[in-house]
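Q: Can someone sanity-check these two? First one:
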Amino acid sequence: MITVRWPDQHPDDVDAIVESPKGGLVWYHNRDTGLMHLDRDDRGLFADKMNVDGAMISNPINQETVTIRALLSGEYVVNLLHYQANYDEPLKVDVKVEKLNPEVELIYYGSHELRGVGDEKTAVRFSVDSKKSISNVNQIPKRLLTKALGRNSLIENKSD
């Protein structure tokens, strides 16, 4: 499971972009690909208030979660995109990657700074072997947005 968080009640929109070993991308334009799913596209303050049984409820938490239902062998890449910025100051974004089965194992936890609209950063890359062991955890940059926007179709190959 991949969790991306930025300060609660902050108006900026941050997006997670995750690439699977087969090249499939999960992001706000493609919430499902193969075994990965974007649970929520959090857009900062936008749509943080909802009517529940006649009462307005606020959800101040800024968080995106990507679920990987089964790990494939190969490399995963987790990028951050500062989609909308309302201030000039850098925005601190925390990223946590956990392997949940057979028990919870922390693969990565780190903080990153995004510096305005369009800033894309590689938060973490990691490899999975045939025994589902994790290795080669690094932050070597890889642009994923260019790849996503360069496709004629944003619908990914559903076989990965």
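And here is the second, same format, sequence then tokens:
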Amino acid sequence: MRIAIIGLGLIGGSVGLALRRAEAGFEVVGFARRPEAASRALELGAVDRTEGSLISAVKDAELVLIATPAMAMKEILAEIGGSLREGSIVTDTASTKAE
């Protein structure tokens, strides 16, 4: 199963680490707008690899986790919407669910 994590800060990185430690055969692909966050996630082993664009990160992912500030959700969803695999699950870690 391919899992894409968008946002590799504290929450996204922690989820990535937990998935990798589960040793369940998941391929964990990450995306971060800040190159230093992507590098750190790779260094810590939170992801198998990172991608340079949102579109390439979500390509063929069965599960997409958006771990970014809530204010970025609308823009991210608009960008990835047409590139999601049919039947994929998209979820987020935002604490608020209203505009």
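A (reply): Looked at the second one. The chain has a mean pLDDT of 94. DSSP finds four helices and five strands in the chain.
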